[in-house]
Amino acid sequence: MRQLPPVRRSTWFLLAAFVAVLVVYLLVKPATPASGTQDDTPAPRATPRAERTPKPTPTPTAAATPTPSPTREATPTPTPTVASPSPTPTPSPSASAGTASPRASVPPPVPQPDSTPG
């Protein structure tokens, strides 16, 4: 019987690299039983996908989009009014009387017009 030649060092390195990659793959990949469970349920998954496709209609989505836009534009107007009174009391006692007077004069006219129409 003929004897085989010795295994080269490079062959052992390739074998070790393959085993290392295999071990890392087995540790990182998802559990195998989950994929086995998924094989049993492809038929039910296909049915909901078919149902989901006809249900969404682009028309309601387009109609819903324009409605919020005007509302958002109207909202910023009252926001500055609410923000104006807050800085008014703080600067009056802290700042000089000359500086507080112009700031105090500006906010009161703004709330009065907003209160009247609303």
UniProtKB/TrEMBL annotation:
Name of the molecule in the record: Uncharacterized protein
Transmembrane segments: 12-28
UniProt region (Disordered), positions on chain: 31-118
Keywords: Membrane, Transmembrane, Transmembrane helix
Biased composition (Low complexity): 60-85, 93-104
Residue spans of biased composition, Pro residues class: 105-118
Domain of life: Bacteria
